[in-house]
Amino acid sequence: MMLKFMEAYNRIKILVEKHVGKNEYPPFHLVNTIGWIILIAADTFIVSPNELLWNWPRLIANTVEWLSGYVITIYLRQAYIRYKYKSNSILRLIAFVLISSLIASILFFFVAHFIDLLFRFQNISKYLNYVFSIKYLVFRLTSLYPLMTTWSLLYFGLKFWIDLLSEIKRAEKADLLAQSAQLQMLRYQINPHFLFNSFSSLRALIRTNKDKAEEMVGKLSEFFRYTLIAKLNTEVPLINEIEAITHYAEIEKIRF
């Protein structure tokens, strides 16, 4: 039993990591599905357990009604994706959210009660007169409208947060590229000058001190090998930097 549980846990973990790791944050459909499952569970086990848990047709009808809200939010998101919130003011965005949430709430009301009607077909006339009235519609919207508005605000809040993180990462990447380009330009300026001077000193040393000339060739070789390898990495161990600086200092010491 424990082995099966661990296998199921590992499969779920791999599935979540596969989807989450792709964008570094959970995808919309995963978050939306989990949110509605929690909402259905809360309504079933906390809000109305006496009414739902002992009445299977009512439990099924209630679950399907909530699932209709889940489907509506999927299509509501499509409208939000097309809305260019960055080019509009915050007041227009709030107005757009409030109107869209109201339309979604009214649609949710009619779809949910149409589903409920399928399970109460024997009392259709009484049900229609009671449910599909302005008074009852307004009463139900006092709970559905805040729900849809909260969902919409959470959607845009998360969207703002994700876009902000993306902008920060892009800025950091651009800054890193700029620094890398600047360092590369400095390297292009320093390396030829240093190399030509070292060769001039090496030519003089070959005539006067062959041992020092051989030592200098070895230091030059190590220094330029490190330079070529290190420029491909954004981070290197400190010990390697110290070793490269030591080679550079020893080369200069031999030259002077």
Q: Indicate the overall shape.
A: elongated
Question: What fraction, in percent, of the residue positions are helical?
Answer: over 70%
Average of the residue pLDDT scores: 81
Strand elements, count: 0
Q: Biggest β-sheet, characterized?
A: none
Distance between termini? Answer: 77 Å
Oligomer type: single chain
- Uncertain runs with pLDDT below 50, 5 residues or more? none
Please provide the ordered H/E string of secondary-structure elements: HHHHHHHHH
Rg over C-alpha atoms, rounded to the nearest angstrom: 34 Å
Structural class: mainly alpha
Number of helices: 9
Number of domains: 2
How large is the share of residues in beta strands? under 5%
Give me a quick take on this structure.
This protein has 256 residues and is mainly α. The protein is built from nine helices and no strands. Helix 8 (210-230) runs antiparallel to helix 9 (238-255).
What features would you describe in this structure?
With 256 residues, the protein is mainly alpha-helical. It has 2 domains: 11-175, no CATH class; 176-255, no CATH class. Helices cover 88% and strands 0% of the residues. The protein is built from 9 helices and no strands. The protein has helices spanning 2-23, 28-47, 49-52, 56-82, 90-118, 124-131, 134-208, 210-230, 238-255. The longest helix is centred in the C-terminal third of the chain and has 75 residues, at 134-208. The protein is elongated. The mean pLDDT is 81.
